[in-house]
């Protein structure tokens, strides 16, 4: 927005010295709370209208379109680190870089208690991949050798998993305070169940799958008064819908 004087507030609100078009204003509305936060944990899920992220066979390419992918890359550009589980790292061989928009690359973090992610793929390629990768492994894991830019971080297990709190502490010790939990569904659900998320961005495509993998899988409840009813904001992304689920209001102190 050349020539526009823009002020962002800690609350995520913004002010401009001239009128902005609707698309620019919507971008500021949805991304402002993330851009201004000193510490935040935000997750994203791309899903169908009926809450599915893949078919029963695991096929998910592609539920969401280019506009949702661009939004994901904007989120990556605004955080210090982007986190995926071992299943996602093995199945997708992701790059976890910012490519569709302009911005810095976050530090990739792989949650891999048993060190089952082989040191292959874009994240482990020296020179062409990220300059720094964190691989979170259990104290007794025996990982294969990895390039020098991959830091193995050993964490204690809690019933076979890492607690989100221990993950966030390890990242904070390394100066990584703003985290995007990108996938997969088990990882996002684990952070949600532990009340470790501040926001979730649900990117909903105009698609009905009817069966398959749910985006969130949380412990069963018996009564609706046990369900969470968070505040939400909605934004149109061409023919898709972005739901900004606010699980914790930002601290303004």
From TrEMBL:
Pathway in which the depicted protein is active: Cofactor biosynthesis; riboflavin biosynthesis
Q: Does the keyword Oxidoreductase apply?
A: yes
One GO MF term, please? 5-amino-6-(5-phosphoribosylamino)uracil reductase activity
Please list the coiled coil stretches. none
Report the Pfam families cross-referenced here.
RibD_C
Any GO BP: riboflavin biosynthetic process
Tell me which residues make up the Bacterial bifunctional deaminase-reductase C-terminal domain: 40-217
Alphabetical UniProt keywords:
NADP, Oxidoreductase
Q: Which PANTHER family does the protein's record reference?
A: 2,5-DIAMINO-6-RIBOSYLAMINO-4(3H)-PYRIMIDINONE 5'-PHOSPHATE REDUCTASE, DIHYDROFOLATE REDUCTASE FAMILY PROTEIN (AFU_ORTHOLOGUE AFUA_8G06820)
Name of this protein: RibD family protein
According to its UniProt entry, this protein's organism is: Wenzhouxiangella sediminis
């Amino acid at each position: 927005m050349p020539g526009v004087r823009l002020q962002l507030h800690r609350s995520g609100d913004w002010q401009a010295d001239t009128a902005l078009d609707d698309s620019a204003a919507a971008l500021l509305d949805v991304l402002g709370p993330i851009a201004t936060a000193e510490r935040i944990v935000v997750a994203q899920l791309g899903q169908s209208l009926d809450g599915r992220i893949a078919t029963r066979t695991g096929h998910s390419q592609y539920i969401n379109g280019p506009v949702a992918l661009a939004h994901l890359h904007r989120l990556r550009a605004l955080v210090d680190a982007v986190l995926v589980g071992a299943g996602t790292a093995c199945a997708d061989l992701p790059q976890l870089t910012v490519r569709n928009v302009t911005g810095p690359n976050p530090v990739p973090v792989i949650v891999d208690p048993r060190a089952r992610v082989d040191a292959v793929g874009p994240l482990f390629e020296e020179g062409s991949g990220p300059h720094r990768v964190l691989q979170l492994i259990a104290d007794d894991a025996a990982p294969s050798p990895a390039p020098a830019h991959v830091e193995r971080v050993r964490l204690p297990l809690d019933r076979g998993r890492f607690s989100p709190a221990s993950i966030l502490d390890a990242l904070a010790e390394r100066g990584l305070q703003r985290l995007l939990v990108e996938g997969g569904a088990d990882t996002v659900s684990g952070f949600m169940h532990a009340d470790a998320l501040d926001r979730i961005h649900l990117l909903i495509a105009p698609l009905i799958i009817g069966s398959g993998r749910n985006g969130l899988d949380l412990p069963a409840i018996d009564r609706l008064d046990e369900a969470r009813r968070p505040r939400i904001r909605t934004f149109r992304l061409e023919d898709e819908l972005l739901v900004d689920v606010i699980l914790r209001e930002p601290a303004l102190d």
